[in-house]
Structure prediction request, 527 residues.
Amino acid sequence: MSGRGSRAVIAGVGHTEYSQDSGRSTLRLAAEASLAALDDAGIDPCAVDGTVSFSLDTNDELAVMRTLGIPELRFAARTRGGGGGACATVQLAAAAVESGQADVVLVYRAFNERSAHRFGQPVRADPATTEPLWNLALPFGVDTPAKIYALTFQAYMHAFGLTNADFGRYTVVARTWAATNPGAQFFGRPITLEDHQASRWIVEPVLRKLDCCLESDGGVALVVTSAERAADQGARAVEIDAATASHLEGGHEMFSYHHDDLTAYPEGQAMARRLYRQAGLTAADIDVAMIYENFSPIVFLQLEALGFCGRGEARDFIAEGHIGPGGSLPVNTNGGLLGEGYIHGMNNIVEAVRQLRGTAPNQIADAEHVLVSAGRSGLILGRTETRGNP
Amino acid sequence: MRVRPPTVGHDDAFFWEGAAAGRLLVQRCATCGELRHPPGPMCPRCHSLEWDTVASSGHGRVLSWILSHHPTRPDDEPRVVVLVALDEGTRLVSNLIDGPDLTGPDRPTLNGRRVSVTFVDHEGTVLPQFRLAETEP
Prediction:
């Protein structure tokens, strides 16, 4: 990104372990991840003057500030929706730094999404949410995110002749990557397609258990600051070459039933156009792609929307090995949200940073450009060595 | 089939009242005539706050479907959830009732099939639900 101020970079990343039961409070998870990110950036917590989190995060900024002993905040923002906004946290933090509204922005997300409040469970309609489709879908038996999304994915399956086994081929790849990532909840546990097909149905005919992302307790934090500040601190900075959010008219949170073509993902297409234009790149320049997967079918829609393959071609693209080890476009090299952990997409940003630093467990040689898609927000991150002086 | 009653609000009360009276109502902007569903307080096209309703013919076609199992009673018969495109142009989520067996890989195709609405009282909550149409128009 370029702006009237200094350009923003990701100077530090930090995270807790990802587990099914952290055994501690979300505030402690947020504090641990934040301290780790600040330590990684070489920046003292006292220097933080801005925060960004998710509107859904239960850790109030003042609680985090108080816990870390931060003296003063002059910027605090939250992203809308759920995991779709994961990349928008970096967009907001970068905007704050580049506009001069903050010098050091702490991005944090921490929850006990497995041991405490689980997102995938059946829900009640809450009039306070103002998403009217919940109220119009719940009485008919659409009571979980899995069912909401599956009703769209089924149209894709029908249009392009996919079976659930085709989706399973993505899960096998994700678990292959996770198996060699010591930080992954499924470290050491790859699966076969037979394992996938034996897992129980969650939403017939679309999703089996092994098509669904993990549920995790944990925390992730990032530090966004100016390139100069990062260089002064000796941080291993990563460039933010593009950042954007993407929402289109007539849209709803999670429900995408209004699109003329249910098999496309126009928010992703619009996002991709802007990201590539901002970064001066094309899909062919991307070395690694981190693609938010609450459910495996969404990877198929996003691969096509982001221009990595043509419409209806994701099945073959995946089956032919392009996204796995040795492939032309490694995807979710940490195992993704299905294999590493589900910190609402933030752990995929951490992996992008590791790939660009050369420190990823499944390191892709010469990774220079990494695209991170959270569905409704996206980033293209770049390696610092390819730039001139800040 | 246990149905969770909707939480009725200002913007969608007309829909549920219509269903209870055996009518599938679609919100219409009273100024420019644009239809919208789900209901909303303002017309996205002309921004009018005035609206009325049209009664749908109840005919449409299936865009997609899934099976919904009860969250805590696994032996209950699953519901078939369908996304229906009404002939009037709007879409809605509903159920297919009295349809074919959809479990197993030899299931018939539902996508694109014509359907027509019926109103079913589920212990006090009347839902507009759909059956496969007997003939293609």
